Amino acid sequence: MTKEQIIDAIKEMSVLELNDLVKAIEEEFGVTAAAPVAVAGAAGGAAEAEQTEFTVELVSAGSSKIKVVKAVKEATGLGLKEAKEVVDNAPKAVKEGISKDEAEELKAKLEEAGATVEVK
Predict the structure, then answer these.
(1) Which end of the chain has the lower number of beta carbons within 10 A, N or C?
(2) What angle do helix axes 15-29 and 80-88 make, rounded to 10 degrees?
């Protein structure tokens, strides 16, 4: 299998499938996929770069769980079962690495459905 074939296979996976794959790789090779923490700031106080990628995290489904599951399903393209798992396992990231506008739009949709949401 070539690198390109592996990358193509990964592109086709859902978020939950990717999460399972990462866990399996960590267990198999005894490594962790956590990104190293960079030391922020420098002597003299360098300004931080403006954040360009955001994560929308579902904090709570609230009282309208079914509406929230439908909103997560619609926003992510996940199947009903996978969307329900995301909602059931809150707090949980719904989408990661998205633009500020997309994050705010998704937050509004989820809040409209009754969820409590954070954009990070």
Answers:
(1) N
(2) 70
Given this model, what pLDDT does residue 36 score?
52
Mean pLDDT for the chain overall: 77
- Residue whose structure tokens are 């809150």: 90
Specify the pairing of strand 116-119 against strand 54-60. Answer: antiparallel
Q: Which residue has the tokens 């396992």?
A: 89
Using alpha carbons only, give the angle 52, 56, 59 rounded to the nearest 5 degrees: 145
Interatomic CA distance for residues 15 and 76, integer angstroms: 9
Give the CA dihedral 25, 26, 29, 35, nearest 10 degrees.
Answer: 110
Residue 72: closest CA among 18, 46, 111: 111
Going 37 to 42 to 48 to 49, the CA torsion angle's sign is negative
Instruction: Give me the pLDDT at residue 33, please.
Output: 63
